[in-house]
Each structure stands twice: as C-alpha cells, then as structure tokens.
Specification:
This protein is an alpha/beta fold and 257 residues long. It is built from nine helices and seven strands; from the N terminus they run E-H-E-H-E-H-E-H-E-H-H-E-H-H-E-H. A seven-stranded mixed β-sheet has the order 3-2-1-4-6-5-7, with helices on both faces. Helix 1 (20-34) links the parallel strand 1 and strand 2. It is globular and about 50 Å long.
Amino acid sequence: MGRTSAPLAILMPVGPDCDSGFVADTIASVRHYLGADTPFLVVDNSRRSLVAQAFAPDPALEILTIDHPQGRLGALWTILARGMKRLRERHDPEVLLRIDTDALVTGASLIAQARARFDAEPSLAVLGAYRVSATGGPRDFSTSADALRRAAARDDAIGQRMSRAIVRAETLGYEVGEHVLGGVCLYHRRALDALDADGLFDDVDLGACGVSEDVLFGLFLRAAGLSRGLSASPGQPLGANWRGLRGTPVALVEQRR
C-alpha cells in the first residue's frame, strides 16, 4: 500500500480485559463524529480476536494483532509505538487521536479545535489532560517520577536511554514524571516525526522499563524539545479522566466536551 497524507488517523489499543461492548461503542462514536473514511488502526492485544467480534466490516479499519503478553507499562509503549509507526508510514496523519476503549467521541469539533491549537503553537506535540485533570484538580506526577528514576538507575541500555532523556528534558524545563494522560489524547505529526527520528519506535528494550507509556511519551517528547498542552480542563473539549468516562455521554455533551 502506498503512503498517503491524511488530516487525521485513529489509534486504539485493545487488551484482554476490554469489554467488547465498549469496543463497539468507541468505534461507532469515532466513525459517527470523525468520519467513516478516517484511517483507524486497532492494535488488538486481547488474544481472543475481540475486535473482530465487535464491529461490522470496515474497509478503513485495520487490525494489527499482537500476541505477546498483556501490554502494560513499557509493553504498552511497544504496542502503541508499532501502531504509530504503521500509521505514519501508511497515512502520515497531521493529527493522531489515541483513544482507549473506555472513551467515547461525543462531538464533531474536537479535531478542528486541536488543529487550531497545533497550528498556533509550533512546538506543541500532544494535547490532553496535562497539569490539570478533567475534574479541575491538579495532577500529581510523583509516582511517575519515582518510576522514571528507578528506570534511569538501571545498569543497562534502558537506564542509559532514560538517563540521557531525563538530563536533556530537564534542561528544557521538564518536571520529572510530567505527562498527558494517555487514555485519550491527540498527537501532532511533529510528535511522530520526533519519536521516529530518535529511533524510539523500534526500541524494543523499553518494553521492560517498568514505566507507563504516557509517562514515556511525556519524557521523550520533552527531550526532543516539544511541548504538551492542556485540553481537558473545564470548558475544554476533552473529558479525559484517570479511569473511565468523566461523566455520562449526555453530561459530556452538555459540558461541550
């Protein structure tokens, strides 16, 4: 398949604990609001063909089956990195929406608002729940910082990679552990380009690093000189929460999420 350039692509990981009904609802919401022809890649780590059971045939939806043990922490990083690399090579999206199966798209304005933010801020790489959560409260990065420091203290390739990235990011104002919540967020093409240029899409060692994937994205993008933006505080379009939806779909629509 030749490479095309798409304004938007969707990436959704599916693990063994996902609910097939949630999978179907999330796919349906994406298709309804973001277009039936938008490239959509599902990385299916359920080991039970969960996605094939949950949706009707869709020529724009591709399933990448990954059979190794459940993707968590660094293992989820490697799963998402494979998906991002595939979407970049095949579709070169301007914006990539990463969405989990316990999230829904509830309106059509999300991508237009994101593109406006990305266009206005040339260093902006990712939008989502950053320093303030969807409830309006401050995020606490201490647990993530501890995990990163443990990884950086390792006497192996992982430790070296982490140490270099932390030092480089801290010179650019990075607070160790800071990150955008991964469950639903938006990456710009410049983020994918930076990760690929640094060889991170192919760094399989990171699968054993013991750090959650959204913390890794936060570290590596900051080390590349890129920034993160808030798009999930009250009055902004994302209702991203630590687990599950921020509220009922009806409530989210009322909040203009």
